[in-house]
TrEMBL record, chain A:
Chain ranges passing through the membrane: 12-39, 59-80, 87-108, 114-137, 149-168, 197-215, 245-262, 323-343
Entry keyword Transport: yes
Superkingdom, taxonomy of origin: Bacteria
Subcellular location: Cell membrane
Name of the protein in its database record: Simple sugar transport system permease protein
Keyword Nucleus in annotation: no
Organism of origin: Pseudochelatococcus lubricantis
Keywords (A to Z) from UniProt: Cell membrane, Membrane, Sugar transport, Transmembrane, Transmembrane helix, Transport
Membrane topology: Multi-pass membrane protein
From TrEMBL, chain B:
Pfam family name, one: ABC_tran
Gene Ontology molecular function, alphabetical: ATP binding
Domain ABC transporter: start-end pairs: 8-239, 258-504
Protein name: Simple sugar transport system ATP-binding protein
Keywords from the UniProt entry: ATP-binding, Nucleotide-binding, Sugar transport, Transport
Entry's family note: Belongs to the ABC transporter superfamily.
Length: 360, 511
């Protein structure tokens, strides 16, 4: 018995059908999963997928959780387009948050309009610096960037813990492992009074718009796409692979670092040992669910944010375990890859033949 | 009429791709032991037809009869079980594996290693195709690699062997050996379907020829009684323009536009070739040919000339006196040096991108297709349209992906892209590789016109006929060294064949 993949004729519909089918299959599997857990599947799915869309408050939460996902995924997608695999956005996010937090803590008893911009600049620089390490190792020594960027995430996480358990711990904080609360000048302005929706959501949308323009309309975007599609043609055109690797990592790291500052100076308002529920990793799913195109990424980020909020919702109302959110996200990526593959290729089983049979 | 049914008979084969009819009611037959030529322009439907015979495509209508029985091969396994063997133009071999391993990989049922090695040895000996089963394929010449593919087919006892452009990678001497093998196979009763553009070869080898034009059979003829010219006219449907060029009246005192002064390049890959002390110069209005069997350093030389590979010895390559060897491809284009690599798909063009986008690869600066880093999409589309109309590229517009064009049409497009930029120096590898006679003539005329306007042109090609009819002077690359330069008008095929085999320089060491 042998499996063969047979390519099907291309169709422009694949790009749209695959994500929709993946969502439908995830919902169907969720139905079975909830049933097996002894929950009312219809009610749980409602709490999970639809309830968050029914109140204004939870709709703004969609923006709060979707913004960092969209921002990070937009940055990562540029690299993925060029076949540069930065898996370490979570670490770049953490370093960005540390850089921003450092600025906030250094000037915590001062008030000035310049504190917040300085924090954001520091976070971008921090994320870029962290991403520069795998970029350097790849371009200089040919080290696989997937491993280095991923492993650096754990290093970043430990650095954060070292700081909040040690020198940066709030002196008035009853020994809790967290920093001081940032001063007013170091917090992001809230867009809608009474909600947590902050300016970061606006920045994420602008970043998506800018990324779309760069990728679709500029020579730099063309260069990235050619390096990803046909590296030899890129060399013929005079495009530099090394430059593209650096660009990919710096943009991806900068965006992730900025998202880190938005988290620390937005909903959290201080540095804590665990800053995000894994936005840096979920953003990888978001980038692919959005087909690496900025408009798709914004939609996919909203969908992923929905699974976070819906997961919390279903925990409270239906007693769903917390792990269900991760399972849901995992299923979504799995089904996306599966539908994508199966729409493009047909699987054919060829029967086993005796190795001697065909010999003369 | 003999009582024996034809080995292969096609009746009314029709295949559509959307609005395009690739094969329209094609019927012909191949008798046992016959060497049958399939001739046609690019896009005439040869590849589609071969894929149908080999089970890679299903016809929309029509019947295939195999020894008189109706068959419908659904995949290559089924075709091979019937006894159909196929040698593709592009080999599917792994450099790092041995001959025996490569053959085992391609067989449906390889059996055990030692028995296989013995069978390889016996088949290759009995057909005059010497091969060492234990050698790594990366160390073999193109001709030897082709032998591996042929032996792989022969091990399955084919009753019909399909050969796609088999001599494009061979020296004239190697081609003669191949012909002897094919005649021998035919004498034993194996039918051969021979696809080629080289009409002289077909006349020498084939008993019958089926000529395709625009998806239809336009003629069935006996090549021995036709001339190459009459067959070419049947193929393209109108009278052929002769491309034989008069030697350029280059004034010898004019300074060279391109000069290569002792270019050295170490071997980089495991089976790569080192370039050693390459020297030549090309003046205005001159076409300089570099002949040689594939894999003797042409790829490495092309990369060094294009700027994909650079050296710190800047003066090793000079364009109009300006040293450029340390600069990248785009800087060299600004200096006037344009290149066009041999491989269209993925090197000279990005298959998944539109024709309009593909103009940006080399023409973005010179044709003003960008402004302040932003792509002028209308300008790119207009330039693509200019190429399409100037070079008669058959395409459904300039927004279709490059991969949707047939090989010859894509070649016309990329050649047109460079030529319309009026380069001072153009280096082009295999400009008519896999291109039909009509398109090849158009490309040759365009190159000659560019030379007449004062450009210096270098043509790196394995097609000797092309070099002999197109160039003013010619040199041969062998084992990474360039031979002395010969005047094309005075050179003989035998002389070049000997230089190709490395008769002058050192013999090539097996990496």
């Amino acid at each position: 018995m042998r499996l063969e993949l047979v390519r099907r004729p291309e169709s422009p519909w694949f790009g749209i059908v695959a994500p929709l089918l993946a969502v439908a299959l995830t919902v169907a599997s969720g139905f079975v999963l909830f049933l097996a857990l002894g929950l009312d599947p219809v009610e749980t799915l409602y709490q999970f997928m639809l309830a968050p869309l029914t109140t204004f408050q939870s709709l703004t939460e969609l923006g709060v959780k979707g913004a960092p996902l969209a921002l990070i995924a937009t940055g990562l997608a540029i690299g993925f387009r060029a076949n540069v695999w930065n898996i370490g956005a979570e670490g770049q996010l953490i370093i960005g948050a540390i850089a921003a937090g450092g600025v906030a803590l250094a000037f915590w008893n001062e008030a000035g309009w310049w504190i917040l911009p300085l924090m954001l600049a520091a976070s971008v620089a921090g994320g870029m610096a962290w991403a520069a390490i795998p970029a350097f190792l790849k371009t200089r020594f040919g080290v696989n960037e997937i491993l280095t960027s991923l492993m650096l995430t754990y290093v970043a996480s430990l650095i954060l813990q070292m700081l909040v358990f040690g020198p940066w711990k709030d002196p008035d904080g009853f020994n809790y492992p967290q920093t001081r609360l940032f001063s007013e000048a170091a917090l992001l302005p809230v867009l809608i009074e009474g909600t947590r929706l902050h300016a970061g959501a606006l920045v994420a949308l602008l970043a998506a718009l800018a990324a779309w323009f760069v990728m679709a309309r500029t020579v730099t975007g063309f260069e990235i796409a050619v390096v990803g599609d046909a590296p030899q043609a890129a060399r013929f055109a005079g495009f530099s692979t090394r430059r593209t690797v650096w660009l990919s990592f710096l943009v991806g790291g900068g965006a992730a670092g900025l998202a880190g500052a938005f988290e620390a100076a937005g909903p959290i308002g201080q540095l804590v040992p665990v800053l995000t529920p894994g936005y840096g990793f979920t953003a990888i799913i978001v980038a692919f669910l959005g087909r690496l195109s900025p408009p798709g990424i914004v939609a996919a980020a909203a969908l992923m944010a929905l699974t976070y909020i819906g997961g919390e919702n279903a925990q409270i109302t239906a007693g769903l375990p917390q792990a269900a959110t991760g399972v849901f996200q995992g299923m979504l990526l799995f089904y996306l890859l599966a539908t994508d593959g199966l729409l493009r290729f047909r699987i054919r089983l060829t029967g086993a033949r005796s190795p001697r049979a065909a010999q003369p | 009429m003999s009582a024996v049914p034809p080995r292969l008979a096609l009746a009314g084969i029709t295949k559509r791709f959307g609005a395009v009819v690739a094969n329209d009611d094609i019927s012909f037959s191949v008798a046992p032991g016959e060497i049958h030529a399939l001739v046609g322009e690019n896009g005439a439907g040869k590849s589609t037809l071969v894929k149908i015979i080999y089970g890679l495509l299903r016809p929309d209508a029509g019947v295939i009869r195999w020894n008189g029985e109706t068959v419908a091969p659904t995949d290559p396994h089924a075709a091979r079980r019937l006894g159909i063997g196929m040698v593709f133009q592009h080999f599917s071999l792994f450099d790092a594996f041995t001959v025996a391993e490569n053959i085992a990989l391609g067989l449906d049922a390889a059996g055990d290693r030692r028995a296989l090695a013995a069978r390889i040895a016996s088949v290759s000996a009995s057909y005059g195709l010497p091969l060492e089963p234990g050698r790594a394929v990366g160390t073999l010449s193109m001709g030897e690699r082709q032998r591996v593919e042929i032996v792989r087919c022969l091990l399955q006892n084919p009753r019909l062997l399909v050969m796609d452009e088999p001599t494009s990678v061979l020296t004239p001497q190697e081609a003669e050996v191949l012909f002897a093998t094919l005649r021998r196979l035919a004498a034993e009763g194996c039918s051969i379907l021979y696809i080629s553009h080289k009409l002289d070869e077909i006349r020498a080898l084939c008993q019958r020829a089926t000529i395709l034009r625009a998806g239809r059979v336009v003629a069935n003829c006996n090549p021995a009684v036709e001339t190459a010219r009459s067959m070419a006219e049947m193929m393209i449907g109108n009278e052929l323009r002769v491309t034989k060029r008069m030697p350029s009246d280059r004034a010898p005192e004019k300074p060279a536009r391109l000069s290569v002064n002792g270019l050295d390049r170490p071997a980089e890959r495991a089976f790569g070739v080192a370039l050693r002390d390459i020297r030549f110069s090309v003046g205005p209005g001159e076409i300089f040919g570099i002949a040689g069997v594939a894999g003797n350093g042409q790829g490495e030389l092309m990369e060094a000339l294009s700027g994909e590979w650079r050296t710190s010895a800047a003066a090793a390559i000079a364009v109009d006196g300006a040293p450029v060897a340390d600069r990248g491809p785009q800087a060299r284009r600004l200096a006037g040096l344009y290149t066009l690599p041999e491989e269209r798909n993925g090197h000279a063009a990005v298959p998944g991108m539109s024709l309009a986008a593909n103009t940006l690869l080399s023409a973005r600066h010179h044709m003003g297709l960008t402004r302040a880093g932003v792509i002028r999409r209308d300008a790119a589309r207009r330039f693509a349209q200019r190429i399409v109309s100037a070079f008669d590229v058959r395409t459904f517009g300039v927004d279709v992906p490059a991969s949707s064009l047939s090989g010859g049409n894509l070649q016309k497009f990329v050649v047109g892209r460079e030529l319309l930029q009026k380069p001072a120096v153009l280096v082009v590898a295999q400009p008519t590789w896999g291109v039909d006679a009509g398109a090849a003539a158009a490309i040759h005329i365009a190159l000659a016109d560019l030379a007449r306007e004062g450009a210096a042109i270098v043509v790196i090609s394995q097609d000797l006929d092309e070099l002999l009819s197109l160039t003013d002077r010619i040199a041969v690359i062998s084992g990474g060294r360039l031979s002395r330069t010969l005047q094309t008008a005075q050179v003989t095929v035998d002389e070049i064949g000997l230089l190709m085999g490395g008769a002058e320089g050192e013999t090539r060491d097996a990496a």
